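Hi P.,

Sorry for the delay on this. The queue was packed all week, but I finally got your sequence through. Input first:
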Amino acid sequence: MNGEIFDDNFVEHLNRYIGETVTIFTTSGGQSGQGFTGVVLSVNKCFVRLITRIGSAPGCALGNACNSYGNSYGNRCCGNSGYSNYGSNYGGGYGQRNLGSVTDIPINRIASFVHNAV
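Then the structure:
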């Protein structure tokens, strides 16, 4: 083990669940001690990376004025000013993006690893 807390068998076990939804409880307190549920993205000897919230897909192709929030120029994407209005907050949340989230959990802080039996 060369002074490491976990051996390769545990890391290999975690690797078998790449692409699967799991819950990992950690030795920390507070909200993080209640566990992280997500899809295993990658595993190495130091960290497990989970996608804990998947971001939204693009609404339409670039250059396509497909949204229905038209303005006097007939196009909210570029209008007459040549810049995108997607970053603005129109209509109570319009323009806000769910970028998703990724959680990196140190292997040596894992208290419990929960996965499906099948």
